[in-house]
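Fold Annotation — chain and its backbone

Fields — amino acid sequence, structure tokens

___
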Amino acid sequence: MPSNRIGRINEEIQRELSDQLRRLKDPRVSQVGMVSVTRVDTTGDLRYARVYISVLDKSQEKEVLKGLKSAAGFLRRELGQTLQLRYTPELQFIPDDSILHGAHILEVLRQVEQKEESRQDGASPKED
């Protein structure tokens, strides 16, 4: 029976990184506005962790990722002190566009719903 250990570690890494990002002093990250850790995927051997980052201002996303990449060593060390794992995973920061993708899907669904409503309004119900 497989355990949920990796899932718990992913959640803990996500929680700790979110907390550390608020205290990070790099102006590329701290002065942008809202930066969120949306998901963490850790390999089974705990050597690498993909950290998915969402930035409110998409025009500054590349600068935020550069800032996080330069602070990756510091964040990894802080994470290692907090989590007490045998191996602290190497952090790879990846932009997450799932929120944008979800908004696009919602817009498509709204368009389909409006078309359905216009069809129903155009077809008058038959009276017996």
Remarks:
- Residues 89 and 124 are 63 Å apart (CA to CA).
- The mean pLDDT is 86.
